[in-house]
Structures are given as structure tokens and as C-alpha cells.
Amino acid sequence: MNEFKPDGHMVTPGEPEQAYPYLAADIDPEDIAPLWLLRSRMPVVEAFITLFRGSVSDSLVRLLVLGEMGRRGDAPEWTLAELRHTFAYLAPASLETALRRLRTGGLLRFDATGSAYVLTPAGLRVYGAVASLLQLTEEEDLGWITSVVRASYELGTLTPEVLSHLLYRLRRLETELQLAVESLSEPRIIQARERLGSIWHWIERGSHTILQILQDPALDRELHRVAQQIGRAQSRLSRMTTVFQRVLNDIDRQRVHLGATGLSTSDLVFFLRHCPLAELRALIAPHLARPVRPLFLLTDLLTDQAEYELLRRRRPVTEWCELPQPLDSPVSLPGPSPDLPELSRLVSHLQADAGAAIPLAAAVPWGSFEESAYRLSMLSLLGDVEAARNTGPVGTLVNLPYSVVALPSDVAVGRVGVATISEGYLQRLPVPSPDPSSAKGPGVVHVSSQLTPEDPRGEKTEQEPSHVP
Question: Which of 11, 131, 202, 215 matches a 20 to 30 Å C-alpha distance to 65?
């Protein structure tokens, strides 16, 4: 098998120290398995060497000729006149040199019978590989290697190297998505989520293929091991969508809104990122009379991050967004006071009674047991200094000239759902007390319900008394 020296001359593999000058001393090329595999595929390697050997201009001319000849599948034979007509934009000498190099490298063959040029099988393989690679984008790269894994499995030529290539792409993708999450940058997280969504169908197809590989007992252990690693990587990627949403929700909860304008800090960041430098300079100039130099920042790390943000970070191309004209925030008026009909009835009842003392059994039970318990709980606010500052119905109740006096015994009521209530009364205060809290009566007031609802069996059930402080 012939090989090329750096000067372009051919050498034979009879002298290993000359054919493989990059090997260490006393190393036999036959003992290196990857090198042996490459040597067994030397016709393909030589075809690529022929295609890309020399300057960039020479390689582009050969790619042009090989691509045009490979695309015409209905008439694969090319006469010299057809080649000259098709490649009229090339200099004749450049076209003849490209044809001669492609013939020498085994990519073209001249058929003397038909006086035409045709692509050899090696040329067709090189053309197919180069055409596929030239059409791939970064997102389609995962689809390409997934398709290679699927085709290799169907043809029975699947190797651990092909699976390792897919595993490498998945692990790199997982690392990039995780870095986007750790950055806590909303634009980076949204971009990473969109990228994962664009290649998600390839991950699903790869999961189906990996499942078939794991269930195939005819494959060796090494293939199963790499396939299991790929399956675990695909499972972690499937959970990234939930991680993205959780982090975005946390960012949304921490977003600061500017009054009632509907704008947030994210809107301001989006606006500032799309401002020209001249406009940014005009916006920030009035606020830089005294520069801020925080001592807690490390200048080297700050410079490194600024260099990445300004020079190396790839910005998504989006449309221009203009903020609305500045307006004063609308005045937020206090909402209407809540409607408290039970409290209003209690206040009206106490204001209408002119007696010196009102028994609790007469003032508390009203309407139902629930409303009676509510009235009793509100009476505990009488004389409260802090509650007296309210301006609504609660303040009106607290400022009534009454104090609660409770005794340790109970009295029977037997109406509106109240069975018993603590004995006591509301004592009218002749003169407003300077310290209303001292007028509170002793003890704990409670009411108990007389309702005895029936259970599904028709038997009476007793209900425990409800204590209200």
C-alpha cells in the first residue's frame, strides 16, 4: 500500500520507521489495533486525501466537479464536452488538473468505450459522505449519527465506536443544557429549551433504537454496555424540560414589576440589550458622574465574564422592541370596605339597647349557632386599644361603651342552635375608660350547640360544646 511523504512523493510500507515516523521507537504498527483498522481502510482514506490535498482553491474545484457529477443521476456518463460546458466558469487548466487528480486518486474513471468520465464506487461513497456533512447543522448532527446507528444496526455492522459517537453527542448536549440552567439566565434557559425541543424527535427515535439493541441477545456485551449508558443519558435529557420550567418559574417569582405599568426588569434588560451603543451611552452618561467601584468584585473574574458577554456569546436574532412612553404610575385607590352584615347587626343591636347591663344570653344568640359564635368572638374586642384605631365597623364596635363580664357558670339558652352559654353580661361604662383593656371581664366565655344531628342510622349524636375565648 502506497503512502505520501510530506513532500508529495510515494513511499512503500516496507520500511516502518520511514512509513510511520510518528511512532515511538521499537513499536510495531501491527500491534496497534486502531492503526491497523485505518490501514485496512486506506482506499477510502486515500480518496479523501486526493479530494482535500493541496490548497483550499484546489479542494474547492475538486468538490465542485465531484458534486456536479454526482448530482446527475439520470445520466452518470460525462463527456469532455459536457464537462467543459457545465464548468465553463472554471479555467480550462484548473478543470483538467481537477479531473486528472480525481482520476489518479481513484474517484473518477475514464471509459474508453464511450469516451466518457464516470464516478467510481469510491467516488460515490466520498460524494455521499461529503454531501451529507455539508448539509448538516448543529441540531441535525444528532439526527445524522442517530440515523447511522439505526442503519448500522439494521445492516448488522453496528460497532461500539458508532454507539460511542452517539453517547458523546448526548453527553455534550446534556452538559451544555446543564450549564444554561446553572447560569440562571432567562434568555440562555429559553434558548436551551428551544434547542432541546428542536432535536427531541431525534432523541425519541434514538430511544427506540437503543431499546431494540438492549433487547437483542445476539449482540456482544460491549454494545450492551454502551447502549445502557446512552439510555441513561436520554433519560436525563427527558427530565431537562421539567428542570427548565422549574427554574423559569423561580425566575418569574423573583421578577420585579415596576408599579402598575405592566413592565418588569426582564423587559428593561431586553430593551437595553437591543439598544445601539450610542443610545446606551446617552442613557447612562447622566448617571456616571461618580463611578461605583465595589470592593467585593474580583476584577479578573469580572473581566473574564464581560469578555464572554461582549465578544464570544452568541446572541439570538430577535426583533426590535420599543418601550412605551414614560407615564406616571396611576394612583391606587383603596378598595371598598368589606360587607360584614353580621357585624353590622351586632353593632345596631348594642347601640339600640340603652340598658346598663345586657345579658350575654340576650346579646349573643342570633340567627344560627355560627353567627352566635361570631358575635361572641367579636365581643372579645371590646376595649382593645389597637382595634379601636380602625375606622370601619370593627372600630365602631370596639369604641362602644361596653365591657364584658363573664362568670364561671353556664345558663341555658335553647334557641337558634345554642344550647348553653357562659353566664355574664355586657356592662355599660358610664364614663369612657382611659385604659379600655382594663375593663375586660375575667374568665372564658363559651357557647355550646343544642343541635343533635342524626347519623345515617337514625340515632342521635351528641356534639361537643364550641369554646370561644
Answer: 11
Cell numbers found for residue 378: 367579636
Nearest to 316 by CA among 279, 267, 274, 269: 274
78, β-bridge pairs: 117
Element (H, E) at 373: helix 369-379
d(CA 68, CA 86): 9
> CA 102 to CA 51: how far, in whole Å?
7
* Grid cell digits, residue 296: 467585593
Q: Given pLDDT bands bounded at 50, 70 and 90, which one contains residue 136?
A: low
Which residue type is seen at 367? G
Instruction: Please give the DSSP secondary-structure letter assigned to residue 29.
Output: G
- Please tell me the predicted confidence (pLDDT) of residue 187: 80
Candidate from 108-112, 177-181, 285-289 with smallest mean pLDDT: 285-289
Burial of 56 (0-12, 13-18, 19+ CB in 10 A): exposed
Q: Where are the domains of the chain?
A: 136-249, 261-312, 341-467
| Nine cell digits for residue 25 | 521507537
